[in-house]
């Protein structure tokens, strides 16, 4: 087990290094950050000076070696936009993103298990058909649109909740729901399919013949069996949320997390902040992957760890 | 009679008395802005978010009225010229910074010294680069000296915010600013909001609105929803098509003028007939109505802002004459010849739409017009880089100092950053105007340059764009031509 964890950690670090290196190259290829950062009125002398101040006048290889040395100490340089260490900006915004993702995915997990289980009890029945249709709808709806719809209905028309920002628990409700919907649909469909599959297996018939009640069968046997696939799909959703969903949801709801910051960093050509964000996200994604493997092994020791 | 009645009456009276006695300004408002300030230091960055906030905390020696007229601010009167390169400012007496430091000559000298110090790398230096320094004459008199004759110095001082010298060295200007203005810094939740409170000791009387919160909402749709839901009192950059769906809105001609600069040395556009055709081919009125729903004014033959000093009000807008345009292209033998219109997308109001509409009109003349929408930094390189000039390039030109010098030296002067001509005569006139201290002569020179530019069709001026603001029912405010969000000019009616 220890050997496995170490091996995965080394692999993970290589992935993180590869991703950040790609970002390093790409940020230096798409446009001139100096032109983006300085106002239109800046003089040529200012541009040259600024370029030298942030090290962009050096050969690419030299920049890259310095970059590698710096990230080893988590020094990503100063954000060009905020003029303070990029890693501080990331450290300030990351908890907001994690809060949003926990609320969103937590809601999806909590609701999907009973919804999927109830639908699976009578495949093809009314509840099942409604669940499947709603699930497909949930998968098909773009979150950008969904977020705006939620704002229109619950904030603008009904005035129940605030439209945007962060501060009170009420501010969390709409962005978390928007974030939850796609994973909720996916989880529910997954739980439903796995339950239907499990319920048709001979051991269930045996258990029922032995006089066990359905809730007990579900709780003790079935749920445990679907836990591993459920875990892997939620790990995947967590990764998708971290690297994708939050960008859209945070932008729509002006939620001051890492996704919104990434959009602003790109708009402003802030390559140092972009590098820091990509590094931290890549690192988290790798870490989640390893954690998922370990937890899966703990639940089901038969699993091969490769 | 119920024994309670007198009590009720007393309570009612007390409540009414409290309401009447409460200061009228006890009203908080919320303004949603698209970008968060990167720093609150008022002298280092050239950043819209910072300005939106700091315009209310800090003041400048010269100010502007909402219509753009230059008036004394922290200066007691308009400056007087001691000699060609020295301007003397008398300062307002009895003004204090929010931390109690006095506003005086030392504060002005320190502010000038700090902003022009190369070590501070101020991005605002482009507005102030002619300044050599400032010296104290007495406690309330300062001489500002320039490197050469600089008639725009008073306008420049409208840009430079005055900082408290003591706090600037020991305090945190970037995180907790201290000015002389009508509002004091209260708090800043990074990423979310920033709060200012009224300065009850403000020298020009306490403002009506007690508290203003700035919310940072980058997505325009979300800003609009927040306004409609009643969370915000003011949003900027409202699209013309949404003017009907907000509680209230206000529009004012702003600082930006959209213009296309023509490459007068390029193969096709070097022919004056072609350039004239390009100006005559566009139905600007139809575009102003269709695209901006009337919230844009057709530019009158020049790209200089009508509120700026030096504007030539006698020029006529280019007519829409597609027949004549086609004939001119034919005469020039340019039918079927290629012309590339370079632009960008998403940076300025309806930029892409304007570029595409113009290209379509130009296509009607018989030229083979292509548009090239570039990524912004590539576009900046096309606009200001050392490479060959584009045939035609779209710019939304802004003039923060409200002086024609900016548009002249930027677009018309042969060495200007965004200029596409090599006309030495025009450049000499612009240079002469730049150091001309006689106001009337300077105005005359600028009028001449604009006339020349119009006759030679060096540019295709399109529109003076309006700034449109969405407002809550209760907010009473008239927007300013310089786009500043001055909270002291706002009132709340309940």
From TrEMBL, chain A:
Entries under Gene3D superfamilies matching the protein: MetI-like (1.10.3720.10)
SUPFAM superfamilies in the cross-refs: MetI-like
Family annotation (InterPro entries): BPD_transp_1_N, MetI-like, MetI-like_sf
Single GO BP term: transmembrane transport
Entry's transmembrane regions: 12-31, 98-121, 133-156, 168-185, 226-248, 272-296
Name of protein: ABC transporter permease
Membrane topology: Multi-pass membrane protein
Keyword Membrane carried by entry: yes
Protein family membership: Belongs to the binding-protein-dependent transport system permease family.
TrEMBL record, chain B:
One GO BP: peptide transport
Keyword Transport attributed: yes
Coiled coil (UniProt feature): none
Entry keyword DNA damage: no
Ranges where the Solute-binding protein family domain occurs: 69-417
Location within or outside the cell: Periplasm
Chief site of localization: periplasm
TM segment ranges: none
PROSITE patterns per UniProt: SBP_BACTERIAL_5
Descriptive protein name: ABC transporter substrate-binding protein
Originating organism: Paracoccus suum
